[in-house]
Amino acid sequence: MKKAEIQNIIVKFLNKEANIHELEKLEIWLKKEQNTSLFNRFVRIHYIVAQHMTEYDLDKAKKSIQLKLDKGERKKRLVLYRRMGVAAAVLLMFGGTLFNFYNTKQPQNIINKETIVIEAGSDKAILTLGNGNQVALEKGKTYQSEDVHSNGEELVYNTKSKNNKEEEITIYNYLTIPRGGEFFLKLADGTEVWLNSESKLKYPIQFKEGKTRKVELVYGEAYFKVSPSTAHKGVSFNVQTKFQEVSVLGTQFDIKAYNDEDVVSTTLIEGKVQIEKGANKIVLKPNQQSKVEGNTNEINIFEVDVSEEISWVHGLFTFNEAPLNELMRILARWYDVDVLFETAAHKDFVFTGILERTKSIEDILILIQATSEGQIKIEVNEKTITIK
What we know:
Strand order of the largest sheet: 3-8-11-12-10-9
CATH architecture of the largest domain: Sandwich
Number of strands: 25
CATH class of the largest domain: Mainly Beta
Low-confidence stretches: 44-58, 71-91, 95-108
Shape: globular
CATH topology of the largest domain: Jelly Rolls
């Protein structure tokens, strides 16, 4: 096989994308002893997965490939993980070129002003109370009231309060996550919600007994781990967004509904949810994603790798042949920067890879620039990134 082809297969293998034919090619290629060291060199980079970090083992990798081939498995693929060290990027591919950013120093030629520091996102949010008052939540600051408390890294509502009486008016709070922020929220029914940058959620401080538990993702992205209906006398959970409504009995799922995107995506990790748009209704199965557009009632369903879709919850960016425009839009939200493209064609350059969200954007931009092999140039001036 040509070098570009094997690089592409290795990248797909590491990112759980290799099909059965590619796995067969990789197995044959690895049988040649001289290719073992080359394979090790390609994958001797650092991988992370939340709460499950293991050392990379080539022999286990080979056995896993063979096992998958024996079973003829086409959808579930091997994942290799290794502890993340100082590298900002794990793996990134542009076109057919694999770029290994492994503990190496790259030329610092994209920053116009060395004094400018663009920080990675962190735990921060604005809590808007029922009376309109606002509370800034961030690491190191605590907040407590009759209904809720926060240690600056999460917001937890009490399971019982005076507001759960049937005759009382439901009081709603809003949690707004700015650009460059994220936050964890535990609702009064026990449902856990992770909110991504530039997101806003509306929810009651208490849910009425026997009534559907309703929240609204006003905009942005949220990962829900819903308290099951069996714990609430069969009452379902409902999430409203622009374009659609999601009904839940108890499950884990992700919804992306940003204001600057024309599509709302819902990804089911486990359980069952029903997507409703206009007169159309459809039930998602695990590992499926629905996409809904505002100008149509169609609900399109796709098979996806859910670990990629929710990698942001575990501190990672995961890109699978993502256009540079999409990649930069995601980085802009997390690092709170503006992005300009001097050449529109550069928006369509595609990248595949995994990047760590806690690292500096400078390291990531250097990686993107280097991976493009001179086809793009990146400059940073204060909080504006220009792609040339």
